[in-house]
């Protein structure tokens, strides 16, 4: 009898004790651009409902953070990543779709994010989710690093964000 491998689940953080493993995961995924622990703690305190993790066999393997911005109709994607071992299985897409669905329920009409212009794999994923490039922002992090500003509209007639569920 073949046993299927355990599928990862998407859930919110259970409590602040999970911030330490999340911080390690973030550092593995983003290196120098990872959030410092104190920033993750503050993001958790302010946006706990928006911070999703992907768990497999009691281990965090990915996370997603997308929040409604100051302008109530604009959402910002602040983080999306899956560890190296679990990339290429559609997990980032699953996380992104769930975060975008939650933003829709909050009344967001467009979602923005920034991405490194050379990150072709992520840009392809974002394009398949309905994001398009608005412009390149030079020195975005005041470090000489450029970022591509991307945006994704929500269809006001259906309340659905363009591209969710597309493959």
Description:
Helix 3 links the parallel strand 4 and strand 5. The protein is globular, with a radius of gyration of 16 Å. Helix 1 packs across helix 2. The longest helix is centred in the middle third of the chain and has 15 residues. Strands 1, 2, 3, 4, 5, 6, 7 and 8 form an eight-stranded mixed β-sheet that branches. The chain has 167 residues and is of the alpha+beta class. The protein has four helices and eight strands. The C terminus is likely disordered.
Order of H and E elements: EHHEEEHEHEEE
Query: Cα distance, first to last residue?
Result: 31 Å
How many DSSP-defined strands? 8
What portion of residues is helical? 25-40%
Separate helix tally: 4
What would the CATH topology be?
Aminopeptidase
Mean pLDDT comes to: 88
CATH architecture: 3-Layer(aba) Sandwich
The unreliable regions are 157-167
Radius of gyration: 16 Å
CATH level-four homologous superfamily name: Gcn5-related N-acetyltransferase (GNAT)
Q: Biggest sheet, in brief?
A: 8 strands, mixed
Proportion of residues in β-strands: 25-35%
Q: What's the overall geometry? A: globular
> Can you tell me the CATH class?
Alpha Beta
Total discrete domains:
1
Question: Helix/strand/pairing class, anyone?
Answer: alpha+beta
